[in-house]
Design goal:
Strand order of the largest sheet: 1-4-3-2-5-6
Order of helices and strands: HEHEHEHHEHEHEH
Radius of gyration: 16 Å
Helix content: 25-40%
Largest sheet: 6 strands, parallel
Oligomer: single chain
Shape: globular
Distance between the termini: 35 Å
Structural class: alpha/beta
Number of helices: 8
CATH superfamily: HUPs
């Protein structure tokens, strides 16, 4: 695995117009200043998807909470990125995570989770979604490739829409030993 994290000296690409979450536009954050990727609104990502399609780019989409980023996440994102030219990550909002994981989650806010994803060179775009699943977002984007961890092989939201449009749905084997829930449980067990 080749872990590539953005730095101030990243040569991959530069963005003159870096985006912040709307509620923080008047308070720039130093980490977002050095972001490799860009945070898009839903309308913006749909426009950008159309542009990538015109340019013949293969667009890959994956999604998740990414509450505590661990090596399993990194490897999944790198595998997803290797399936195309552009990787879009759909990120659950805080409300969406709470509904899925319970009132104690997320540990990190959507802003913090977005910052971490934006700093990864494998990620080209991040878009938040409020719903329980990203099905509507995926149906609008119609990525060329939809990637999920193998733990979701029983149900991949948006998979039917992607395949109906001629795209591919791929599952990636999970990295054994990595789980945000397991990390949280381990930390809590150390406190007793």
């Amino acid at each position: 695995m080749n872990l590539r994290i953005c730095s101030a000296f990243s040569q991959r690409r530069s963005h003159s117009a870096r985006r912040l979450l709307p509620s923080y536009r008047n308070r720039p954050h130093p980490l977002l200043h050095w972001s490799v990727a860009r945070l898009y609104s839903r309308a913006e990502i749909l426009q950008q998807r159309a542009d990538w399609k015109r340019k013949g780019k293969t667009v890959v989409f994956t999604n998740g909470c990414y509450d505590l980023l661990h090596p399993g996440h990194i490897r999944l994102l790198e595998d997803a990125r290797s399936a195309g030219d552009v990787l879009i990550v759909g990120l659950n909002t805080d409300a969406s995570v709470r509904r899925a994981k319970g009132p104690g989650r997320p540990l990190n806010s959507e802003r913090e989770r977005a910052e971490v994803l934006l700093a990864l060179e494998t990620v080209d775009a991040v878009v938040l979604f409020e719903e329980d699943t990203p099905r509507a977002l995926i149906a609008g984007l119609l990525p060329d490739v939809l990637v999920k961890g193998a733990d979701w092989s029983h149900f991949i939201a948006g998979g039917e829409e992607v395949e109906a449009a001629g795209g591919r749905v791929l599952t990636v084997a999970l990295e054994p030993g990595y789980s945000t829930t397991a990390i949280i449980e381990k930390i809590l067990s150390l406190e007793t």
